[in-house]
Amino acid sequence: MEREKSTHPAVMTSIEDSPVPRKISPIDEIWTNAHSLKTATTFLKDRSDSHTPLHLQNFVSGDFTPTVSSSAGSWIDSFNPKTGALFAKVPCTQPDDVEAAVQAAKAAFPAWAKTSRVERSQYLQRISDLIKLDREKFAVWESIDQGKTLERARIEVDRAVANFSYFATYILHEQTAARMIDGVALTYEHRSPAGVFALISPWNMPLYLLTWKLAPCLAFGCTAVAKPSEITSMSAFLLGRVFQEAGLPRGVINIIFGDGPTTGAALVASPLVNGVSFTGGTETGIAIRQATAAQIGKHLSLELGGKNPTLVFSDSMLPEHRDRTIRIAASAAFENQGEICLCGSRIYVEKTMYDDFVRHFTDYVAKTYVLGQTVGAVASLQHYNKIRGYLQLAAKDGATFNLGGVPAALLPPDDDDITVISNSEERGYWIPPTTLTNVPLDSLVLKDEIFGPVVTISSFQDEQEAVSLANDSEYGLAAVLLTADGARMRRVGEQLEAGMVWVNSWLVRELGTPFGGMKNSGTGREGGDSSRDVFTVVRTMHLPSF
Ligand SMILES: NC(=O)c1ccc[n+]([C@@H]2O[C@H](COP(=O)([O-])OP(=O)(O)OC[C@H]3O[C@@H](n4cnc5c(N)ncnc54)[C@H](O)[C@@H]3O)[C@@H](O)[C@H]2O)c1
Ligand SMILES: O=C/C=C/C=C(\O)C(=O)O
Fold first, then answer.
1. Which residues does UniProt mark as catalytic (predicted)?
2. Quick one: which of 253, 406, 441, 535 could link to 220 by a disulfide (CB 3.0–4.6 Å)?
3. Backbone dihedral angles phi then psi of residue 47, each to the nearest 5 degrees
4. Are 227 and 79 in a shared domain?
5. Residue 318: which domain range?
6. What's the predicted TM-score (pTM) here?
Protein backbone atom coordinates (compact mmCIF):
# COMPACT_ATOMS: atom_id res chain seq x y z
CA MET A 1 0.00 0.00 0.00
CA GLU A 2 1.16 3.55 -0.72
CA ARG A 3 0.79 6.19 1.94
CA GLU A 4 -1.91 8.49 0.62
CA LYS A 5 -4.75 10.62 1.87
CA SER A 6 -7.83 8.52 2.52
CA THR A 7 -10.99 9.21 0.58
CA HIS A 8 -13.14 7.73 3.29
CA PRO A 9 -15.64 10.43 4.42
CA ALA A 10 -14.91 10.06 8.13
CA VAL A 11 -11.21 10.07 7.39
CA MET A 12 -11.48 13.21 5.27
CA THR A 13 -13.31 15.08 8.00
CA SER A 14 -10.82 14.11 10.59
CA ILE A 15 -7.68 14.79 8.60
CA GLU A 16 -8.93 18.01 7.01
CA ASP A 17 -10.07 19.37 10.35
CA SER A 18 -6.94 18.57 12.24
CA PRO A 19 -3.74 19.22 10.33
CA VAL A 20 -0.65 17.88 12.06
CA PRO A 21 1.21 20.84 13.66
CA ARG A 22 4.02 22.17 11.44
CA LYS A 23 6.50 22.73 14.26
CA ILE A 24 8.92 19.81 14.49
CA SER A 25 7.56 17.73 17.32
CA PRO A 26 9.30 14.67 18.78
CA ILE A 27 7.01 12.34 16.84
CA ASP A 28 7.68 14.16 13.56
CA GLU A 29 11.38 14.04 14.18
CA ILE A 30 11.37 10.30 14.76
CA TRP A 31 8.89 9.61 12.04
CA THR A 32 10.85 11.41 9.37
CA ASN A 33 14.45 10.81 10.51
CA ALA A 34 14.63 7.48 12.19
CA HIS A 35 13.32 4.72 9.99
CA SER A 36 16.20 2.24 10.08
CA LEU A 37 18.69 1.10 12.66
CA LYS A 38 21.29 3.37 11.05
CA THR A 39 19.17 6.52 11.04
CA ALA A 40 17.83 5.77 14.52
CA THR A 41 21.37 5.42 15.86
CA THR A 42 22.42 8.70 14.24
CA PHE A 43 19.31 10.37 15.60
CA LEU A 44 20.09 9.18 19.13
CA LYS A 45 23.75 10.18 18.78
CA ASP A 46 22.75 13.72 17.77
CA ARG A 47 20.44 13.86 20.73
CA SER A 48 23.24 12.62 22.94
CA ASP A 49 25.70 15.22 21.64
CA SER A 50 23.22 18.00 22.30
CA HIS A 51 22.19 16.56 25.68
CA THR A 52 18.53 16.62 24.67
CA PRO A 53 16.94 13.26 25.27
CA LEU A 54 13.79 12.54 23.41
CA HIS A 55 10.67 13.53 25.38
CA LEU A 56 7.59 11.45 24.58
CA GLN A 57 4.15 13.05 24.46
CA ASN A 58 0.70 11.76 25.25
CA PHE A 59 -1.70 11.33 22.35
CA VAL A 60 -5.10 12.66 23.41
CA SER A 61 -8.05 13.71 21.24
CA GLY A 62 -6.02 13.11 18.09
CA ASP A 63 -3.09 15.36 19.03
CA PHE A 64 0.26 14.84 20.65
CA THR A 65 0.13 17.04 23.71
CA PRO A 66 3.11 19.41 23.68
CA THR A 67 3.44 19.46 27.44
CA VAL A 68 1.92 17.39 30.15
CA SER A 69 0.06 20.07 32.05
CA SER A 70 -0.14 18.97 35.63
CA SER A 71 2.69 16.48 35.33
CA ALA A 72 5.28 18.95 34.09
CA GLY A 73 8.58 17.98 35.61
CA SER A 74 7.46 14.43 36.29
CA TRP A 75 9.33 12.24 33.84
CA ILE A 76 10.38 8.62 33.82
CA ASP A 77 13.80 7.76 32.37
CA SER A 78 13.76 5.14 29.63
CA PHE A 79 16.95 3.19 28.97
CA ASN A 80 18.31 1.24 26.03
CA PRO A 81 18.71 -2.25 27.53
CA LYS A 82 21.53 -3.15 25.15
CA THR A 83 23.72 -0.27 26.37
CA GLY A 84 22.18 0.82 29.65
CA ALA A 85 22.08 4.36 28.23
CA LEU A 86 19.25 6.79 28.77
CA PHE A 87 17.51 7.42 25.48
CA ALA A 88 14.10 8.88 26.22
CA LYS A 89 12.02 10.53 28.88
CA VAL A 90 8.46 9.38 29.33
CA PRO A 91 5.80 11.56 30.94
CA CYS A 92 4.34 10.22 34.15
CA THR A 93 0.76 11.26 33.54
CA GLN A 94 -0.95 12.50 36.68
CA PRO A 95 -4.54 11.61 37.66
CA ASP A 96 -6.20 14.80 36.34
CA ASP A 97 -4.59 14.32 32.92
CA VAL A 98 -5.64 10.68 33.01
CA GLU A 99 -9.19 11.82 33.62
CA ALA A 100 -8.96 14.29 30.72
CA ALA A 101 -7.96 11.42 28.42
CA VAL A 102 -10.86 9.30 29.72
CA GLN A 103 -13.20 12.24 29.06
CA ALA A 104 -11.89 12.41 25.49
CA ALA A 105 -12.63 8.69 25.02
CA LYS A 106 -16.06 9.14 26.53
CA ALA A 107 -16.88 12.09 24.27
CA ALA A 108 -15.83 10.06 21.21
CA PHE A 109 -17.78 6.96 22.19
CA PRO A 110 -21.35 7.69 20.99
CA ALA A 111 -20.32 8.50 17.41
CA TRP A 112 -17.78 5.67 17.20
CA ALA A 113 -20.26 3.14 18.59
CA LYS A 114 -22.68 4.12 15.82
CA THR A 115 -20.27 3.60 12.93
CA SER A 116 -21.08 0.67 10.71
CA ARG A 117 -19.07 -2.54 10.79
CA VAL A 118 -17.89 -1.89 7.27
CA GLU A 119 -16.58 1.52 8.26
CA ARG A 120 -14.79 0.18 11.32
CA SER A 121 -13.37 -2.67 9.29
CA GLN A 122 -11.91 -0.15 6.84
CA TYR A 123 -10.24 1.80 9.62
CA LEU A 124 -8.74 -1.38 11.06
CA GLN A 125 -7.45 -2.53 7.70
CA ARG A 126 -5.95 0.88 7.03
CA ILE A 127 -4.18 0.85 10.40
CA SER A 128 -2.90 -2.64 9.65
CA ASP A 129 -1.58 -1.49 6.26
CA LEU A 130 0.10 1.57 7.74
CA ILE A 131 1.94 -0.47 10.36
CA LYS A 132 3.02 -2.88 7.64
CA LEU A 133 4.33 0.01 5.58
CA ASP A 134 6.50 1.08 8.51
CA ARG A 135 7.43 -2.41 9.63
CA GLU A 136 11.12 -1.59 9.88
CA LYS A 137 10.60 1.64 11.78
CA PHE A 138 8.46 -0.10 14.37
CA ALA A 139 10.89 -3.01 14.63
CA VAL A 140 13.92 -0.77 15.06
CA TRP A 141 12.39 1.26 17.89
CA GLU A 142 10.90 -1.78 19.60
CA SER A 143 14.31 -3.40 19.55
CA ILE A 144 16.05 -0.28 20.93
CA ASP A 145 13.42 0.23 23.59
CA GLN A 146 12.85 -3.36 24.75
CA GLY A 147 16.23 -5.01 24.21
CA LYS A 148 14.92 -7.73 21.89
CA THR A 149 16.72 -8.59 18.66
CA LEU A 150 15.67 -6.79 15.51
CA GLU A 151 14.60 -10.10 13.99
CA ARG A 152 12.32 -10.88 16.93
CA ALA A 153 10.93 -7.33 16.79
CA ARG A 154 10.03 -7.81 13.12
CA ILE A 155 8.06 -10.95 13.98
CA GLU A 156 6.11 -9.02 16.58
CA VAL A 157 5.36 -6.13 14.21
CA ASP A 158 3.96 -8.69 11.78
CA ARG A 159 1.69 -9.95 14.52
CA ALA A 160 0.52 -6.38 15.23
CA VAL A 161 -0.38 -6.11 11.54
CA ALA A 162 -2.28 -9.39 11.84
CA ASN A 163 -4.10 -8.28 14.99
CA PHE A 164 -5.74 -5.41 13.07
CA SER A 165 -6.43 -7.33 9.88
CA TYR A 166 -7.90 -10.27 11.82
CA PHE A 167 -10.46 -8.14 13.64
CA ALA A 168 -11.10 -6.09 10.48
CA THR A 169 -12.47 -9.25 8.87
CA TYR A 170 -13.94 -10.80 12.03
CA ILE A 171 -16.54 -8.05 12.36
CA LEU A 172 -17.62 -8.45 8.77
CA HIS A 173 -18.46 -12.10 9.39
CA GLU A 174 -19.68 -11.92 12.94
CA GLN A 175 -22.87 -13.78 13.79
CA THR A 176 -24.90 -13.80 16.97
CA ALA A 177 -26.97 -16.67 18.29
CA ALA A 178 -30.75 -16.91 17.86
CA ARG A 179 -32.94 -19.66 19.41
CA MET A 180 -36.56 -20.66 19.50
CA ILE A 181 -38.06 -21.57 22.91
CA ASP A 182 -40.73 -24.26 22.48
CA GLY A 183 -41.99 -22.49 19.40
CA VAL A 184 -43.28 -19.75 21.70
CA ALA A 185 -40.58 -17.15 21.65
CA LEU A 186 -37.74 -16.31 19.39
CA THR A 187 -34.70 -15.11 21.32
CA TYR A 188 -31.58 -13.54 19.99
CA GLU A 189 -28.43 -11.93 21.34
CA HIS A 190 -28.19 -8.24 20.73
CA ARG A 191 -24.74 -6.86 21.42
CA SER A 192 -23.65 -3.27 21.97
CA PRO A 193 -20.20 -1.79 22.46
CA ALA A 194 -19.43 -1.80 26.19
CA GLY A 195 -18.06 1.76 26.30
CA VAL A 196 -14.74 3.27 27.29
CA PHE A 197 -11.84 0.90 27.97
CA ALA A 198 -8.57 1.09 29.82
CA LEU A 199 -6.03 -0.94 27.82
CA ILE A 200 -2.93 -1.65 29.88
CA SER A 201 0.03 -3.61 28.60
CA PRO A 202 3.42 -4.88 29.81
CA TRP A 203 6.98 -4.41 28.56
CA ASN A 204 7.80 -7.81 27.06
CA MET A 205 6.03 -7.58 23.69
CA PRO A 206 4.88 -3.96 23.73
CA LEU A 207 3.38 -3.48 20.26
CA TYR A 208 2.15 -7.07 19.84
CA LEU A 209 0.23 -7.04 23.12
CA LEU A 210 -1.13 -3.49 22.99
CA THR A 211 -2.49 -3.99 19.48
CA TRP A 212 -4.03 -7.30 20.61
CA LYS A 213 -6.28 -5.07 22.73
CA LEU A 214 -6.59 -2.01 20.50
CA ALA A 215 -7.80 -3.97 17.47
CA PRO A 216 -10.82 -5.68 19.09
CA CYS A 217 -11.60 -2.54 21.09
CA LEU A 218 -11.97 -0.56 17.85
CA ALA A 219 -13.64 -3.41 16.00
CA PHE A 220 -16.43 -3.81 18.54
CA GLY A 221 -17.15 -0.08 18.67
CA CYS A 222 -15.47 0.89 21.93
CA THR A 223 -13.16 3.78 22.63
CA ALA A 224 -10.10 3.67 24.86
CA VAL A 225 -7.32 5.14 26.85
CA ALA A 226 -4.28 2.95 26.33
CA LYS A 227 -1.33 2.90 28.69
CA PRO A 228 1.76 0.94 27.71
CA SER A 229 4.42 -0.03 30.23
CA GLU A 230 6.57 2.89 31.36
CA ILE A 231 9.59 0.71 30.52
CA THR A 232 8.67 0.39 26.82
CA SER A 233 6.61 3.32 25.58
CA MET A 234 8.12 3.93 22.13
CA SER A 235 5.99 1.73 19.91
CA ALA A 236 2.78 3.12 21.42
CA PHE A 237 4.13 6.62 20.77
CA LEU A 238 4.63 5.69 17.11
CA LEU A 239 1.15 4.20 16.97
CA GLY A 240 -0.35 7.62 17.71
CA ARG A 241 1.03 8.79 14.38
CA VAL A 242 -0.50 5.77 12.63
CA PHE A 243 -3.90 6.62 14.12
CA GLN A 244 -3.53 10.19 12.85
CA GLU A 245 -2.57 8.96 9.39
CA ALA A 246 -5.46 6.51 9.35
CA GLY A 247 -7.73 9.45 10.16
CA LEU A 248 -9.21 7.80 13.20
CA PRO A 249 -11.71 10.28 14.66
CA ARG A 250 -10.34 12.29 17.55
CA GLY A 251 -10.59 10.74 20.98
CA VAL A 252 -11.42 7.22 19.82
CA ILE A 253 -8.00 6.00 20.93
CA ASN A 254 -5.98 8.03 23.42
CA ILE A 255 -2.51 6.95 24.47
CA ILE A 256 -1.09 8.08 27.75
CA PHE A 257 2.22 7.28 29.36
CA GLY A 258 3.18 6.73 32.94
CA ASP A 259 3.79 4.26 35.71
CA GLY A 260 1.41 1.85 37.42
CA PRO A 261 0.82 3.45 40.82
CA THR A 262 0.19 6.96 39.43
CA THR A 263 -1.19 6.62 35.92
CA GLY A 264 -2.41 3.02 35.64
CA ALA A 265 -4.17 3.05 39.01
CA ALA A 266 -6.02 6.31 38.22
CA LEU A 267 -7.06 4.95 34.84
CA VAL A 268 -8.53 1.65 35.97
CA ALA A 269 -10.37 3.26 38.88
CA SER A 270 -12.05 5.97 36.84
CA PRO A 271 -15.83 5.56 37.09
CA LEU A 272 -16.11 6.60 33.44
CA VAL A 273 -14.12 3.55 32.38
CA ASN A 274 -16.49 0.68 31.56
CA GLY A 275 -13.90 -2.02 31.14
CA VAL A 276 -10.26 -2.92 31.67
CA SER A 277 -8.24 -5.19 29.43
CA PHE A 278 -4.99 -5.77 31.25
CA THR A 279 -1.92 -7.86 30.50
CA GLY A 280 0.83 -7.98 33.09
CA GLY A 281 1.84 -9.51 36.38
CA THR A 282 -0.47 -11.39 38.74
CA GLU A 283 0.13 -8.96 41.62
CA THR A 284 -0.99 -6.07 39.45
CA GLY A 285 -4.01 -8.11 38.36
CA ILE A 286 -4.96 -8.54 42.02
CA ALA A 287 -4.52 -4.79 42.62
CA ILE A 288 -6.81 -4.04 39.66
CA ARG A 289 -9.46 -6.45 40.92
CA GLN A 290 -9.30 -4.86 44.35
CA ALA A 291 -9.43 -1.30 42.99
CA THR A 292 -12.48 -2.06 40.88
CA ALA A 293 -14.28 -4.48 43.23
CA ALA A 294 -17.12 -2.09 43.95
CA GLN A 295 -17.65 -1.29 40.27
CA ILE A 296 -19.59 -4.48 39.63
CA GLY A 297 -20.49 -3.83 36.01
CA LYS A 298 -16.94 -3.04 34.92
CA HIS A 299 -15.64 -5.63 32.45
CA LEU A 300 -12.31 -7.10 33.54
CA SER A 301 -10.05 -9.13 31.33
CA LEU A 302 -6.82 -10.06 33.08
CA GLU A 303 -4.00 -11.86 31.25
CA LEU A 304 -1.38 -12.55 33.91
CA GLY A 305 1.80 -14.42 34.70
CA GLY A 306 2.89 -17.98 34.05
CA LYS A 307 5.42 -20.62 35.04
CA ASN A 308 4.77 -22.99 32.22
CA PRO A 309 5.82 -26.65 32.07
CA THR A 310 7.27 -28.44 29.05
CA LEU A 311 6.76 -32.22 29.29
CA VAL A 312 9.19 -34.34 27.29
CA PHE A 313 8.18 -37.99 26.93
CA SER A 314 10.84 -40.49 25.94
CA ASP A 315 9.11 -41.33 22.64
CA SER A 316 9.67 -37.73 21.53
CA MET A 317 13.41 -38.35 21.86
CA LEU A 318 13.44 -41.18 19.31
CA PRO A 319 15.92 -40.31 16.54
CA GLU A 320 13.20 -39.32 14.06
CA HIS A 321 11.61 -36.83 16.54
CA ARG A 322 14.54 -35.68 18.60
CA ASP A 323 15.58 -32.58 16.63
CA ARG A 324 12.05 -31.25 16.61
CA THR A 325 11.66 -31.92 20.34
CA ILE A 326 14.86 -30.11 21.22
CA ARG A 327 14.07 -27.19 18.92
CA ILE A 328 10.59 -26.69 20.37
CA ALA A 329 11.69 -27.01 24.01
CA ALA A 330 14.53 -24.55 23.37
CA SER A 331 12.46 -21.95 21.58
CA ALA A 332 9.78 -22.20 24.27
CA ALA A 333 12.45 -21.49 26.86
CA PHE A 334 14.56 -18.81 25.19
CA GLU A 335 12.55 -16.94 22.57
CA ASN A 336 12.61 -13.22 23.34
CA GLN A 337 15.09 -13.89 26.20
CA GLY A 338 12.43 -15.97 27.93
CA GLU A 339 10.38 -12.80 28.31
CA ILE A 340 7.12 -14.24 27.00
CA CYS A 341 4.42 -15.16 29.46
CA LEU A 342 4.00 -18.45 27.54
CA CYS A 343 7.64 -19.48 27.84
CA GLY A 344 8.21 -23.05 28.99
CA SER A 345 10.55 -22.33 31.89
CA ARG A 346 10.18 -25.70 33.68
CA ILE A 347 11.19 -28.67 31.55
CA TYR A 348 10.33 -32.16 32.84
CA VAL A 349 11.82 -35.13 30.98
CA GLU A 350 10.92 -38.81 31.31
CA LYS A 351 13.68 -40.41 33.38
CA THR A 352 14.83 -42.94 30.76
CA MET A 353 15.80 -40.14 28.36
CA TYR A 354 16.80 -37.47 30.87
CA ASP A 355 20.58 -37.52 30.37
CA ASP A 356 20.18 -37.75 26.63
CA PHE A 357 17.86 -34.76 26.61
CA VAL A 358 20.10 -32.61 28.82
CA ARG A 359 23.10 -33.29 26.57
CA HIS A 360 21.35 -32.58 23.26
CA PHE A 361 19.41 -29.62 24.64
CA THR A 362 22.52 -27.98 26.10
CA ASP A 363 24.48 -28.44 22.85
CA TYR A 364 21.64 -27.05 20.78
CA VAL A 365 21.04 -24.03 23.02
CA ALA A 366 24.75 -23.19 23.16
CA LYS A 367 24.89 -23.19 19.34
CA THR A 368 21.55 -21.55 18.60
CA TYR A 369 20.89 -19.00 21.33
CA VAL A 370 23.83 -16.63 21.20
CA LEU A 371 23.88 -13.50 23.30
CA GLY A 372 23.87 -10.38 21.16
CA GLN A 373 22.89 -12.34 18.05
CA THR A 374 19.79 -14.44 18.60
CA VAL A 375 19.33 -13.42 22.23
CA GLY A 376 18.79 -9.79 23.18
CA ALA A 377 19.21 -7.93 26.44
CA VAL A 378 16.57 -8.16 29.17
CA ALA A 379 14.21 -5.23 29.40
CA SER A 380 15.38 -3.20 32.39
CA LEU A 381 17.99 -2.94 35.08
CA GLN A 382 15.38 -3.81 37.67
CA HIS A 383 14.50 -6.96 35.74
CA TYR A 384 18.18 -7.83 35.29
CA ASN A 385 18.64 -7.64 39.04
CA LYS A 386 15.54 -9.75 39.64
CA ILE A 387 16.77 -12.53 37.32
CA ARG A 388 20.24 -12.30 38.83
CA GLY A 389 18.69 -12.73 42.28
CA TYR A 390 17.05 -16.00 41.18
CA LEU A 391 20.32 -17.25 39.72
CA GLN A 392 22.05 -16.51 43.03
CA LEU A 393 19.28 -18.44 44.74
CA ALA A 394 19.70 -21.37 42.34
CA ALA A 395 23.41 -21.48 43.20
CA LYS A 396 22.59 -21.34 46.92
CA ASP A 397 20.03 -24.14 46.51
CA GLY A 398 22.73 -26.34 44.99
CA ALA A 399 21.59 -26.30 41.35
CA THR A 400 23.99 -27.20 38.55
CA PHE A 401 24.50 -24.56 35.86
CA ASN A 402 24.82 -26.56 32.64
CA LEU A 403 24.90 -23.29 30.71
CA GLY A 404 25.23 -19.74 32.00
CA GLY A 405 26.00 -18.62 35.52
CA VAL A 406 25.33 -15.75 37.91
CA PRO A 407 25.92 -12.58 35.87
CA ALA A 408 27.83 -9.58 37.16
CA ALA A 409 26.10 -7.08 39.41
CA LEU A 410 25.00 -3.95 37.56
CA LEU A 411 24.57 -0.72 39.43
CA PRO A 412 22.16 2.01 38.45
CA PRO A 413 23.85 4.88 36.60
CA ASP A 414 24.77 7.70 38.96
CA ASP A 415 23.16 11.09 38.56
CA ASP A 416 26.03 12.48 36.50
CA ASP A 417 25.65 9.67 34.03
CA ILE A 418 21.94 9.98 33.56
CA THR A 419 22.04 12.48 30.71
CA VAL A 420 24.42 10.33 28.72
CA ILE A 421 22.81 8.72 25.70
CA SER A 422 25.94 7.12 24.37
CA ASN A 423 26.47 3.50 23.47
CA SER A 424 28.40 1.53 26.04
CA GLU A 425 27.63 -2.16 25.91
CA GLU A 426 29.23 -2.89 29.26
CA ARG A 427 26.26 -1.26 30.96
CA GLY A 428 23.76 -3.32 29.01
CA TYR A 429 21.44 -5.81 30.66
CA TRP A 430 22.86 -9.01 29.17
CA ILE A 431 22.03 -12.38 30.71
CA PRO A 432 23.25 -15.46 28.82
CA PRO A 433 20.88 -18.39 28.26
CA THR A 434 21.04 -20.44 31.44
CA THR A 435 20.04 -24.08 31.93
CA LEU A 436 19.75 -25.46 35.43
CA THR A 437 19.61 -29.07 36.62
CA ASN A 438 19.46 -30.54 40.15
CA VAL A 439 17.11 -27.80 41.31
CA PRO A 440 15.35 -28.94 44.52
CA LEU A 441 11.60 -29.39 43.95
CA ASP A 442 10.77 -26.88 46.70
CA SER A 443 13.15 -24.18 45.40
CA LEU A 444 11.56 -20.83 44.55
CA VAL A 445 13.44 -21.09 41.26
CA LEU A 446 10.88 -23.75 40.29
CA LYS A 447 7.91 -21.90 41.75
CA ASP A 448 8.26 -18.20 40.88
CA GLU A 449 7.98 -16.64 37.46
CA ILE A 450 11.54 -15.54 36.59
CA PHE A 451 10.63 -14.27 33.10
CA GLY A 452 14.16 -14.41 31.73
CA PRO A 453 16.51 -16.68 29.74
CA VAL A 454 16.54 -19.30 32.48
CA VAL A 455 15.16 -22.84 32.30
CA THR A 456 15.17 -25.73 34.76
CA ILE A 457 15.36 -29.36 33.64
CA SER A 458 13.94 -31.99 36.01
CA SER A 459 12.76 -35.57 35.49
CA PHE A 460 9.59 -37.61 35.94
CA GLN A 461 8.92 -41.33 36.25
CA ASP A 462 5.58 -41.81 34.56
CA GLU A 463 2.55 -39.98 33.15
CA GLN A 464 0.96 -39.51 36.51
CA GLU A 465 4.01 -37.87 37.96
CA ALA A 466 4.43 -35.75 34.83
CA VAL A 467 0.91 -34.35 35.23
CA SER A 468 1.30 -33.76 38.92
CA LEU A 469 4.64 -31.93 38.51
CA ALA A 470 3.27 -29.87 35.64
CA ASN A 471 0.24 -28.83 37.70
CA ASP A 472 2.24 -28.09 40.83
CA SER A 473 2.12 -24.34 40.29
CA GLU A 474 -0.03 -21.41 41.33
CA TYR A 475 -0.11 -20.49 37.64
CA GLY A 476 -1.99 -22.12 34.78
CA LEU A 477 -1.25 -20.23 31.60
CA ALA A 478 0.31 -22.59 29.05
CA ALA A 479 1.93 -26.01 28.71
CA VAL A 480 3.96 -27.78 26.04
CA LEU A 481 3.53 -31.52 25.56
CA LEU A 482 6.19 -33.31 23.52
CA THR A 483 5.26 -36.87 22.63
CA ALA A 484 4.89 -39.12 19.61
CA ASP A 485 2.02 -41.05 21.17
CA GLY A 486 -1.29 -39.88 19.73
CA ALA A 487 -3.46 -41.19 22.57
CA ARG A 488 -1.21 -39.58 25.16
CA MET A 489 -1.60 -36.20 23.50
CA ARG A 490 -5.21 -36.07 24.66
CA ARG A 491 -4.91 -38.26 27.76
CA VAL A 492 -2.20 -36.08 29.31
CA GLY A 493 -3.03 -32.81 27.56
CA GLU A 494 -6.59 -32.72 28.87
CA GLN A 495 -5.38 -33.10 32.47
CA LEU A 496 -3.02 -30.14 32.36
CA GLU A 497 -4.11 -27.06 34.28
CA ALA A 498 -3.27 -24.61 31.52
CA GLY A 499 -5.33 -22.27 29.37
CA MET A 500 -3.30 -23.20 26.30
CA VAL A 501 -1.70 -26.60 25.67
CA TRP A 502 0.65 -26.91 22.71
CA VAL A 503 1.35 -30.45 21.50
CA ASN A 504 4.65 -30.84 19.62
CA SER A 505 4.56 -27.10 19.04
CA TRP A 506 4.74 -23.80 20.87
CA LEU A 507 3.12 -20.40 20.36
CA VAL A 508 1.30 -21.49 17.24
CA ARG A 509 -1.52 -18.98 17.18
CA GLU A 510 -4.90 -18.82 15.52
CA LEU A 511 -6.40 -15.52 16.57
CA GLY A 512 -9.95 -16.80 16.91
CA THR A 513 -9.16 -19.25 19.71
CA PRO A 514 -9.69 -18.37 23.39
CA PHE A 515 -6.43 -17.11 24.87
CA GLY A 516 -5.95 -16.81 28.62
CA GLY A 517 -5.00 -18.58 31.79
CA MET A 518 -6.33 -20.76 34.59
CA LYS A 519 -5.58 -20.30 38.31
CA ASN A 520 -3.39 -17.23 39.04
CA SER A 521 -2.75 -16.70 35.35
CA GLY A 522 -5.85 -14.70 34.74
CA THR A 523 -9.52 -13.95 34.48
CA GLY A 524 -11.33 -14.38 31.18
CA ARG A 525 -10.17 -15.05 27.65
CA GLU A 526 -9.31 -12.88 24.65
CA GLY A 527 -9.30 -13.62 20.91
CA GLY A 528 -12.16 -13.95 18.40
CA ASP A 529 -15.51 -14.46 20.14
CA SER A 530 -13.85 -14.14 23.55
CA SER A 531 -12.67 -10.61 22.71
CA ARG A 532 -16.22 -9.85 21.66
CA ASP A 533 -17.35 -10.87 25.16
CA VAL A 534 -14.81 -8.46 26.65
CA PHE A 535 -15.75 -5.45 24.54
CA THR A 536 -19.53 -5.82 24.19
CA VAL A 537 -22.57 -6.06 26.45
CA VAL A 538 -25.31 -8.55 25.61
CA ARG A 539 -29.01 -8.14 25.91
CA THR A 540 -31.06 -11.21 25.17
CA MET A 541 -34.12 -10.16 23.17
CA HIS A 542 -37.33 -12.22 23.61
CA LEU A 543 -39.94 -12.00 20.88
CA PRO A 544 -43.01 -14.10 21.73
CA SER A 545 -45.35 -15.31 19.05
CA PHE A 546 -48.42 -14.01 20.88
N1 LIG B 1 -0.98 -13.70 30.22
C2 LIG B 1 -0.47 -12.95 29.27
O3 LIG B 1 -0.96 -12.90 28.15
C4 LIG B 1 0.77 -12.14 29.55
C5 LIG B 1 1.43 -11.56 28.47
C6 LIG B 1 2.58 -10.81 28.70
C7 LIG B 1 3.07 -10.61 29.98
N8 LIG B 1 2.41 -11.17 31.01
C9 LIG B 1 2.93 -10.98 32.36
O10 LIG B 1 3.36 -9.64 32.58
C11 LIG B 1 4.39 -9.62 33.55
C12 LIG B 1 5.54 -8.76 33.08
O13 LIG B 1 5.09 -7.51 32.75
P14 LIG B 1 5.21 -6.23 33.71
O15 LIG B 1 6.34 -6.40 34.68
O16 LIG B 1 5.17 -5.03 32.85
O17 LIG B 1 3.87 -6.34 34.53
P18 LIG B 1 3.25 -5.27 35.52
O19 LIG B 1 2.05 -5.90 36.07
O20 LIG B 1 4.27 -4.74 36.44
O21 LIG B 1 2.86 -4.06 34.57
C22 LIG B 1 1.97 -4.21 33.50
C23 LIG B 1 1.29 -2.88 33.24
O24 LIG B 1 0.48 -2.55 34.34
C25 LIG B 1 0.75 -1.24 34.78
N26 LIG B 1 0.45 -1.17 36.21
C27 LIG B 1 1.25 -1.47 37.25
N28 LIG B 1 0.58 -1.30 38.41
C29 LIG B 1 -0.68 -0.91 38.09
C30 LIG B 1 -1.85 -0.62 38.84
N31 LIG B 1 -1.85 -0.68 40.17
N32 LIG B 1 -2.96 -0.30 38.18
C33 LIG B 1 -2.99 -0.25 36.85
N34 LIG B 1 -1.92 -0.50 36.08
C35 LIG B 1 -0.77 -0.84 36.68
C36 LIG B 1 2.21 -1.03 34.40
O37 LIG B 1 2.55 0.33 34.37
C38 LIG B 1 2.25 -1.71 33.06
O39 LIG B 1 1.74 -0.87 32.06
C40 LIG B 1 4.78 -11.05 33.74
O41 LIG B 1 4.19 -11.52 34.92
C42 LIG B 1 4.17 -11.76 32.55
O43 LIG B 1 3.88 -13.11 32.70
C44 LIG B 1 1.27 -11.92 30.84
O1 LIG C 1 3.89 -12.63 26.82
C2 LIG C 1 2.76 -12.99 26.61
C3 LIG C 1 2.29 -13.41 25.36
C4 LIG C 1 1.02 -13.29 25.05
C5 LIG C 1 0.58 -13.67 23.76
C6 LIG C 1 -0.64 -13.37 23.29
O7 LIG C 1 -1.48 -12.63 23.95
C8 LIG C 1 -1.06 -13.81 21.99
O9 LIG C 1 -0.33 -14.52 21.30
O10 LIG C 1 -2.16 -13.42 21.61
1. 303
2. 535
3. -60, -40
4. yes
5. 308-498
6. 0.94
